[in-house]
Design a protein that fits this description.
- The chain is built from 8 helices and 5 strands, in the order βααβαβααβααβα.
- Helix 4 packs parallel to helix 7.
- The protein has 211 residues and is of the alpha/beta class.
- It is globular.
- Strands 2-1-3-4-5 form a 5-stranded parallel beta sheet, sandwiched between helices.
């Protein structure tokens, strides 16, 4: 199987201690757990679903989604974990807006015209880990998130799951298994990358079996 993993800095493997990339990021660990399959990494720091970063417009996920999909096909499964960057205070987005973004991603991915001679990929949507409440007590390292960011983060899983049910797409909540670190309250450490990889591995294998 060819499995494409689309995400933001928590898929790229951002280490908040030094800005470098974790070798033990969840996609790399997943590749080790699934050596019989090909894991394709598509993590981008700051990637959003629909929102356009005024400084780096290329971070808008929906804008480059078709190109990304066409460049990697054929694809058997796609894993998408996005939504955290929509919580930045200058976007002023709600969890329901993130749900709308997920629905737009699903529409593009499930469009059969995009795949032509290839089979339309199966899709797993993952709601990201929560922005930790400690961010409010200790200050935001990046200065991009606030109290509303933390509040809306808590509502993401419900909003995203509702969309996945509507489109009959597989769903998983990363916050049930992993959490952001106490370094910046947004990015996972390698231990939590490993925890996430383990449950994604199990979820995908169940999907392979049609469970």
């Amino acid at each position: 199987m060819r499995i494409l993993c689309i995400g933001d800095s928590n898929t790229w493997g951002y280490n908040p201690l030094n800005g470098q990339r974790y070798e033990g990021r969840w996609t790399k660990v997943l590749a080790q757990l699934m050596p019989e399959h090909e894991i394709i990494e598509e993590g981008l720091n700051g990637r959003t679903l629909l929102s356009v970063d005024p400084v780096i417009k290329e971070r808008c996920g929906i804008a480059g989604l078709k190109m990304l999909l066409m460049s990697h096909k054929p694809i058997d499964y796609i894993v998408v974990m996005l939504g955290t960057n929509e919580m930045k205070k200058f976007f002023e987005c709600s969890a329901s807006y993130v749900g709308k973004g997920v629905s737009e991603f699903i529409k593009v991915i499930q469009n059969p015209e995009l795949w032509q001679r290839f089979q339309t990929p199966k899709l797993l949507i993952i709601s990201p880990v929560l922005i930790r409440e400690e961010l409010l007590e200790n200050g935001d390292v990046f200065g991009e998130f606030d109290e509303n960011s933390v509040l809306q983060s808590k509502c993401l899983a419900t909003a995203i799951e509702e969309v996945c049910k509507e489109y009959e797409v597989d769903f998983m909540n990363a916050a049930d298994y992993a959490e952001a670190s106490l370094v910046d309250y947004i990015h996972m450490d390698e231990e939590n990358h490993r925890k996430l990889a383990e449950v994604v591995n199990l979820k995908l294998r169940k999907m392979f079996e049609g469970l």
